[in-house]
Write a structure and sequence with these properties.
There is one protein chain. This protein has five helices and four strands, in the order ααααβαβββ. By secondary structure, it is an alpha+beta fold. It has a domain of 102 residues. A four-stranded antiparallel β-sheet has the order 1-2-3-4, covered by helices on one side. The radius of gyration is 29 Å and the shape is elongated. The N and C termini lie far apart (84 Å).
Length: 169
């Protein structure tokens, strides 16, 4: 009995598939004309790009905030002297250089092979201020969220090899 019911259901499915027109590809004149002047897709596309321009200053501000905060934290963790406190106070978005770097760069591959403790992530940046240069990685886009860097590696040129002063507890 169950076999008969199952066979009838399969037979009706096959019959329904064969009764549809073979020339019907699922496209209608409305879907073929993508250059139409009216439509929700065009409106969505225009609205999306209009709102993106408004978000650029906010994204840049979030990115610079994340980069500067981590750079300051790294500098102060290495040297908590009075001169560095004054230097850190002067770090702003206007006096730093930063760039997003990618894993396919031969230079990134080069220093990551020399420093195996650093992980490759999708969001990697290099920030430079004065004699300090810092490599930062983020879990998510630092333009979108205020967040701590996942990893950071600070490099700087000093007067001598033992310039680092450990702060007293």
């Amino acid at each position: 009995m169950i076999l008969v019911i199952a066979m009838t259901g399969i037979g009706s499915l096959v019959l329904a598939q064969t009764t549809t027109s073979p020339n019907n590809t699922g496209s209608t004149p409305e879907t073929e004309n993508h250059d139409g002047k009216e439509g929700q897709d065009k409106e969505f596309y225009e609205y999306y790009y209009k709102t993106q321009a408004e978000n650029l200053p906010l994204k840049k501000a979030k990115l610079e905030y994340n980069l500067i905060r981590t750079l300051k934290k790294e500098i102060l963790s290495r040297d908590y002297s009075k001169a560095n406190l004054e230097l850190v106070k002067k770090i702003e978005g206007s006096n730093i250089k930063y760039e997003r770097v990618y894993r396919d760069s031969k230079w990134v591959r080069g220093f990551l092979s020399q420093m195996p403790h650093l992980n490759v992530l999708d969001y990697m940046y290099i920030v430079k201020h004065d004699k300090y240069m810092c490599f930062l990685t983020f879990e998510t886009n630092p333009e979108s969220y205020l967040q701590e860097a996942r990893q950071s590696q600070l490099l700087f040129t000093g007067n001598d090899k033992f310039e680092i002063v450990i702060p007293k507890p």
